[in-house]
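Notes from hallway chat w/ T.B., transcribed later so I don't forget. T.B. wanted the structure written out for a chain they're using in a teaching module, and asked if we could keep both sequence and C-alpha cells in one place. Agreed to drop them here.
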Amino acid sequence: MYSEKIIQSRNATFQLSNDFKGLNGGKCGWICRQLNKIRDFVVDIPIIGTYLTTRIDAALQVISYIDDVVLKLGSDYEPTLQEEMILNNWQLNKLQPFYRELALDLSDAFKQNSLTQQTSIVNEVLNKMCIVKTYFINNEKDGLSINAIQLRSNLIENIFEPLYEIIETSFANQNLTSISVLAKLDNSTIGDYYPLISGNKSLSTSCFNYKSNSTSSNAVPMILNDSTSTPQTVIKESNGNLLWIGLLVAGVLAITIFNDDNSTSEKKKIDK
C-alpha cells in the first residue's frame, strides 16, 4: 500500500532491515555511526525529538545485540577509505541538516489548529522524502561503487522510517484516504531540498499523500500517537520477505537459557 514502506504496526519502535545485519563484522559499522550522529542532531526538536531518538536508540540496541552476540556475519558492505570520506562529508554537511529541517517541518504540523493545515504540511514532508529516496538511487555517484550507493540509500531509508511511523500512527484514526500524486523536483522546488540537493536538477516520481474525506471545517487535528511505553519489535517486508526480529531474539534467548542450564548441570556433575 505504501510505496515509501510506512510501518504498519501502530506500536512499532523503529523499522529494522537486513541492511543493518552484520555490518562491519558484527560491529554495526558505517550506518550505525551515522545514526548515532543524526540521533544527537535531532534530540532537541520540539514534540517529536524524543520520539525519534527513542526509535533510533531501540534500533541500535537490537542491531548491536543481534550482530555482536548472534550473527557476526561481517558479510555486508563497508565503504573504502575514499568512499567513507565522500559519504561522511555528504552525511554531515548535506543529509544531516536537511533531515533536521524535515523533522522540524513535521513537528510544526502538530502545532497547527486544523487537520487541513496538518495534512498539507505532512504531504509536503512525504513528497520530500519520496523525492530524496528516488534521487539518490541514480544521482551523485562519483567516487562511489554500486555497494556504496546502496549503503547511502539504506541510511536514507532508515532515518526516514521514524518520520513515516509518526505520520502513519498519528493519522491512523483520521478520516483520510491515501492517494498517489506526482511529486516534482525542478527549479521551482529545488530550494526546499537545500543543502541535500542543489543546482539545476529535474525529477518527477509517484508519491504517497493523504486526502481528507471530511467536509467539516471542525475536523479534529491529529496528535502524536506515542507508543514508547509499549515498544514492540517491527516486522518489515524487505524484497518480499518478512523479517521477524522479535522471534529471532526470543529464539536466541531460549538457546542461551538452555545452554546456561546445561552448563549448570555439567558443573554440578563435576562438583559431585
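Follow-up for T.B.: The helical segments are 30-42, 49-71, 81-109, 115-138, 146-170, 245-271. Might be a good example for the class.
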